[in-house]
Design a protein that fits this description.
The protein has 138 residues and is an all-alpha fold. It has one domain: Orthogonal Bundle (Globin-like). 77% of the residues lie in helices and 0% in strands. The termini are far apart. InterPro entries: Globin-like_sf (IPR009050), Globin/Proto (IPR012292), Hemoglobin_trunc (IPR001486). This is Globin. It holds the Pfam family Bac_globin. GO terms for molecular function: heme binding; metal ion binding; oxygen binding.
Length: 138
């Protein structure tokens, strides 16, 4: 399934439901909730509405749908103290949400996209930690 077909098959309504389902679970997760609430405030108030709008734009762009998303995903994840365990939890919650909200082919495609993103984001988080360690050691 190509990304263009993926956006067309998911559509905006299911994408919004997916993101709200997923981030509702993130907000309840013992480790992830603290990171997000520190950055955005309590779910679903605070900075969450704007965050969710940005994420809708991001996922539309990733699936080649209409989007004006222009932010830097890696930069948004720097300096958060993210560990491999955080990424494990994030991807586990994403798997559950896509499986609940989307039909199997679309759920699998969205999961694969997120799994690829995890590699990039984890690399950024690791390099951030190495840079921080270097500053402390100096």
């Amino acid at each position: 399934m190509s990304p263009a077909q993926l956006y067309d098959r998911i559509g905006d309504v299911r994408l919004r439901v997916l993101l709200r389902t997923f981030y509702g679970r993130v907000a309840e997760h013992p480790e992830l909730s603290a990171i997000f609430s520190q950055a955005l405030g309590p779910y679903p108030q605070g900075g969450w509405p704007l965050h969710l709008l940005r994420l809708e734009g991001f996922w539309r762009a990733v699936t080649l749908g209409p989007s004006a998303y222009r932010s830097s995903l890696p930069a948004a994840h720097q300096h958060l103290g993210l560990t491999p365990a955080h990424f494990d939890a994030w991807l586990h919650l994403w798997r559950g949400a896509v499986d609940e909200v989307l039909p199997a082919p679309e759920a699998d495609a969205m999961y694969r996209l997120a799994a690829r993103m995890r590699v990039k984001l984890e690399r950024v988080a690791a390099s951030d930690g190495e840079a921080s360690a270097g500053v402390r050691d100096a």
